[in-house]
Amino acid sequence: MAWFGALCDDDYAQLGVVRPDLRSSWEHCRDIVLEAERGGFDNILLPSGYDLGIDTTSFASSIAPLTSKMSLLVAVRCGELWPPQLARQLTTLNQTLGGRLTVNIISSDLPGEKLDGPARYRRTLEVMTIVRAIMRGQRVEFDGEFHSVHLDAPRICIENPVDPSFYFGGLSDEAREVAAAGADVYLMWPDTEDMIATTMDDLRARAARHHRSLRFGYRCHVVVRDTEDEALAAARHLIAAVDEEEGARIRARSLDSQSAGVRRQAELRESSAGDGFVEPHLWTGIGRARSGCGAAIVGTPRQVADKINRYRDMGITAFILSGYPHLDECTRFARDVLPLLRNG
Fold this sequence. Notes:
Order of helices and strands: EHEHEHEHEEHEHEHEHHHEEEHEHH
Distance between the termini: 14 Å
Structural class: alpha/beta
Number of helices: 13
Largest sheet: 11 strands, mixed
Shape: globular
CATH architecture: Alpha-Beta Barrel
Number of domains: 1
Number of strands: 13
Radius of gyration: 19 Å
Strand content: 15-25%
């Protein structure tokens, strides 16, 4: 069970209404991470953006010594750093964390760059291949389309070898192939249970063709309140200040705003009933005002826990959850839902 660190200016009491105290900063994001660790979360996603928020790896290195139990899921955008240097940087961070590093591989365009999807994913797989080998302490002999690397691993990687867990998501055919060939956890955004099961079956088959296996993760928002009526009211309040024009502006800010995954979130929202629900307790209204992950599990602690347990029964083993404001919802979820999940 992982929470979400709002490094990319994605924290609100009402979506679209900017509050200076909720904007990304060292202090605010530190407080979210430390609250997640106090609450008993296993991990926390530290997302990556360029225009939005603060730098992920710099923040991770500064927060690492303040944590003692929880892992950090550090997002890296493939192409931003020369892969051997990225491997050295991540290994150093893992040493600081005492082995608690996990890595979220991002394949979106870089700032000022426009690369077609298939090429981006080919570059991503090259980066994953090189970084994994060097972090294992191995010499690399690699000639690819984007990178040519012939060198030994640096001393820190040889003396502190690690096989990092790579989380990776994407719905396009190219993204699925990269996940099957190089990822450890295939990370999905919200969808109907039938569609999730179909996607998991497809990824299992693709991974098998590479003589590999995958674990599955689920990235979703949550709105938890003592009663169902209170949860529905909180969900409606969250998007009450967003009109269609403002929502479109917010969604367009993301570098991956035209990806297959983002398009699927829009389709899911458009297919929902008038109340925004596509199935019991899965509410798509939150996607009106954000790009990417566009749905929330809404309900009482027991209802939210039961929904998560349905996903567990389907074979999902990693969850990355968030709620608004992130600090408040982190406290509420840890207090009211985590015990239900831990105790069955």
